[in-house]
Write a structure and sequence with these properties.
Length: 387
């Protein structure tokens, strides 16, 4: 997305001369177009192959090359970070579509030059925005005040222990806590009683030394998670077939869907039989730090994305489950075991879909995320299958 001021600057600097179509020729079309469903907002037009029209043959930004990094669109300068308004301030989230974020590398944004840079971007992002306090919900219809949501967030983080022997035990403890909070008897409590219940039970659950018994996700939940994986795999197919006609893209999606139903052979790297042949051990030394980092980041920024808290957590864990599925298929395609590199790439591929600004897709993914059962799905014990 580009602002009116940015577009005015680019027109003055003859940005049309830097814009290219897929064949590399100077475009005759305007580089900017209206965003459907968002009156008054515009975006950079994509090339026929789906890439940004200002992307050079060397994979570099022509706006950056011509007038400097500081003049790139704010949207581009923000990546891999994003700002969100929350009841208790502005929350910064990081995209796991970025390899540096997945690897947890680089300087912390909590201090020094990084903090100064983030603060500068925050001020620019806030300029001209009307920030409205947004009430939070645990689930649809169950309001949760700022103090109570903070108690929940801090104690869920306490359950996720970096030094624990099995990260699945931590995930189970979080799932069991959310299961308890979403019982009908709890959800229908008066606001003050609900806040008191959270303040008493959640810290107790975080401090209990005994492990929580695992349970299998229900059959419907497993089917929904399978549907979530299809949505991610179909989106990846769109990327891999970028530049093809709409009809060809639809056929590719239908082939992936038919394969998921056992009615067609594997499509590209999408092969659901790999899910039984390749196990993803989230406790392995190479993968566990990524899973921990992803879950910690999700919990630390809980409530930032405007969804009910349980929906937000279920979506995040579903992307992690989808990453396990993609990693298994990618490893099987290469006839290798799932390692840190393969899992990292799969997590970036899955997380890419979280950036889709599409209300219908978002609604579908929330339904496929299977609620708290997504946690139980992630914490299932490994069941090695003969290859």
């Amino acid at each position: 997305m580009v602002s009116a001021a940015e577009i005015e600057l680019y027109r003055k600097r003859n940005a049309i001369a830097w814009f290219r179509e897929s064949d590399g020729e100077i475009a005759e079309r305007d580089p900017f177009e209206a965003i459907p469903g968002a009156p008054g907002l515009q975006r950079i037009r994509k090339r026929d192959d789906g890439a940004c029209g200002f992307l050079s043959a060397d994979n570099r930004c022509r706006i950056h090359e011509e007038i400097g990094a500081a003049k790139k669109p704010l949207t581009c300068r923000l990546f891999p970070y994003a700002f969100h308004t929350a009841a208790d301030g502005v929350v910064v989230t990081a995209s796991f579509g970025c390899p540096t974020i997945v690897a947890n590398q680089g300087a912390s944004i909590a201090a020094g030059e990084s903090l100064i840079a983030i603060e500068s971007l925050r001020k620019e992002w806030l300029a001209g925005r009307q920030i409205k306090a947004r009430s939070a919900e645990l689930v649809n219809g169950r309001a949760i005040d700022t103090r109570t949501s903070r108690v929940l967030r801090e104690n869920l983080l306490a359950m996720l222990k970096q030094e624990s022997g099995d990260i699945r035990d931590d995930i189970n403890r979080i799932a069991a806590t959310l299961d308890d909070l979403t019982r009908s008897k709890v959800l229908t409590l008066a606001d003050e009683d609900f806040a008191e219940y959270v303040s008493l039970t959640v810290p107790h659950a975080a401090n209990k030394p005994d492990a929580v018994a695992r349970r299998e996700p229900g059959r419907i939940a497993r089917a929904l998670q399978y549907g979530f994986l299809y949505a991610v795999a179909a989106a990846r197919a769109d990327v891999e077939h970028r530049g093809e006609s709409r009809m060809q893209l639809r056929i590719a999606r239908l082939m992936v869907l038919a394969h998921f139903h056992g009615l067609a052979p594997a499509v590209d790297r999408v092969n659901v039989k790999a899910l039984k042949r390749r196990a993803v051990d989230i406790n392995s030394p190479g993968i566990r730090p990524i899973v921990f980092h992803y879950l910690r980041s999700t919990l630390e920024t809980l409530g930032a994305r405007g969804r009910p808290i349980v929906d937000e957590l279920a979506m995040a864990v579903s992307f992690l489950n989808a990453a396990c599925g993609l990693a298994a298929m990618n490893a099987d395609d290469d006839d290798e075991d799932v390692d840190r590199e393969i899992f990292s790439e799969a997590l970036m591929e899955a997380s890419d879909l979280s950036h889709a600004d599409n209300a219908l897709l978002d609604s579908i993914l929330v339904r496929f995320s299977a609620g708290i059962d997504a946690f139980w799905h992630l914490s299932r014990p490994l069941r090695p299958q003969p290859r």
